[in-house]
Amino acid sequence: MSTTDRASTNTHHPVVVIGAGQAGLSVSWYLGRAGVDHLVVEAATPVHAWTDKRWDNFTLVTPNWHCRLPGYSYDGPEPDGFMTRDEVVAWLDGWLTTFTPPVRTHTTVTRLARVESGGFELTLVGGVDGNRTEPETITCDQVVVATGGYPLPVVPSFAPAIDSSVVQIHSEEYFNPEQLPEGAVLVVGSGQSGAQIAEDLHLAGRRVHLAIGNAPRVARTYRGRDCMTWLADMGLYDTPTREYPGGKAAQEKTNHYVTGRDGGRDVDLRQFAREGMRLYGTLTDGKDSMLGFAPTLTAALDKADSVYNSICADIDRHIRDNGIDAPPPTRYEAVWAPEADPIELDLQAAGVASIVWAIGYRPDYRWIEASAFDGGGRPMQTRGVTEVPGLSFVGLPWMHTWGSGRFLGIDRDARHIAEHVAAAVGRPRLMVATGT
Predict the structure, then answer these.
(1) Do 119 and 390 touch, CB atoms closer than 8 A?
(2) In this predicted model, what pLDDT tens digit does every residue of 402-433 receive, in sequence order?
(3) How high is the pLDDT of residue 414?
(4) Same-domain status, 256 and 340
């Protein structure tokens, strides 16, 4: 793999891809095969998020066989296993040896704007460790934004009012229990990151307090197979967004919590509570040492279990309707329930020395000067293509299907965007096959 430097970069390119994660590089893979001149601009280094923003014991929550990129698929010995962070990094490094995308690293796009004559003007600033170059301008006819759907970590507005002696970090800054000061830890959020970080701390012997939201849960395995393999067979990852059961409401929900750790298993917060983890409902406010919670714990646990059993019931129908031979059905039964929903926590009295915020991210496209966003700042797009001529996105959750934004859906989404872009610059056909 090669990168370009500032001196060799032209001032105009037919296509610029912003972001060299797996989604942006997948678009570049197809554009390269089609002979489309393009530049990929990356603020750090290619696929850096896997090394920079994943904790030490991170594992995929989707089976390894889901890992498919253009011209490259997982072919290791454990297709139904779950790669660790370091294994994912090695797998991606292997992919990057198979082609040579024109990537310009350590360069940030600080402004993207339409120009009257057509196309776009981009302001670039390069540099590492605070040593930034003077801004420069390049232009392009087509631009593909592949910076990720939600780059800004969310922290509640009252966080600064909490006792300053309590260390606060966001989940993307968490790597291992040893980085946190001695004492108990409060994890806020029960999506995939929050639940798994709470488990990581719990298994390390730390006293954990967990504030849970409305995240649902799913069984790791059911009736002899991984649940996500069943769901793939049922077509859930391929169903177009507009046809997905539950509509927009389903797409706004937090992802189901489950883990691939130690070969994969359920994340059962009730069992954690039996083992000493303290659970709370939604965190609503905090000042100094006192935090307040909504009395939602019981309802949140019940709802998560209801979704768990509902997914199992959907799999039961699939098995029955298709005459599949499988072990008999089961249902999850609660192993613990709170006597009452706690509504407050005194951090000092409980010995809580740190907080890990795992309440998600929000979009940030303020650097893009184009009428392509809704009231919540999300791109208005159809399969990544916007109404702004020449402006496309890739790598967004739910961009086309539930699989969008995941390894399983990246190849298909990237090919679609590359075909659209190639046609716009006079290369109407990509003479390559998909990598899946």
Answers:
(1) yes
(2) 888 889 999 999 999 999 999 999 876 654 54
(3) 96
(4) yes
* Locus of tokens 């997905």: 244
Using DSSP bridges, classify how beta strands 278-280 and 208-211 pair: parallel, antiparallel or unpaired.
Answer: parallel
Q: Which one of 361, 391, 408 terminates a domain?
A: 361
Continuous segment of H or E residues that includes residue 141: strand 136-145
Round to whole Å and give the CA distance between 410 and 391: 18
3-state secondary structure of 88: helix
Neighbour-count burial of 65, counting CB atoms closer than 10 A to its CB (0-12 exposed, 13-18 middle, 19+ buried): buried
139: containing domain: 6-151+363-424
State how many domains the chain has: 2
* 287 and 325 co-located in one domain: yes
Strand partners, 14: none
Strands (DSSP E) found in 288-338: 290-293
CATH (domain of 285):
3.50.50.60
Cα torsion for 65, 67, 72, 77, to the nearest 10°?
A: -40
Q: Whole-angstrom Cα distance, residue 50 to residue 85?
A: 7
Are 346 and 325 in a shared domain? yes
144: left (phi over 0), alpha (psi -120 to 50) or beta: beta
Instruction: For residue 85, give every residue at least 6 positions away whose Cβ sits within 8 Å of its Cβ, in sequence order, or none.
Output: 50, 51, 54, 55, 56, 57, 58, 59
Q: What is the pLDDT of residue 389?
A: 96
Under DSSP, the state recorded for 295 is S
Nearest Cα neighbor of 149 from 367, 406, 378, 401 is: 378
Same-domain status, 289 and 419: no
pLDDT digits over 261-317, tens only?
999 999 999 999 999 999 999 999 999 999 999 999 999 999 999 999 999 999 999
| 248 pLDDT higher than 70 | no
Whether 159 and 283 map to the same domain: the answer is yes
Q: Domain ends where: 361, 387, 403?
A: 361
Give the pLDDT confidence of 24-63 residue by residue, as tens digits: 999 999 999 999 999 999 999 999 999 899 999 999 999 9
The reported pTM is 0.92
Note whether residue 145 is domain-resident. yes
> Which of left, alpha, beta for 345 (phi over 0: left; psi -120 to 50: alpha)?
beta
Tell me the angle at which helices 22-33 and 407-424 cross, rounded to the nearest 10 degrees.
40
* CA–CA distance, 153 with 142 (Å, rounded to integer): 29
Burial (0-12, 13-18, 19+ Cβ within 10 Å), 184: middle
User: Is residue 1 one of the residues assigned to a domain?
Assistant: no
Nearest-angstrom CA–CA distance, 34 and 15 = 13
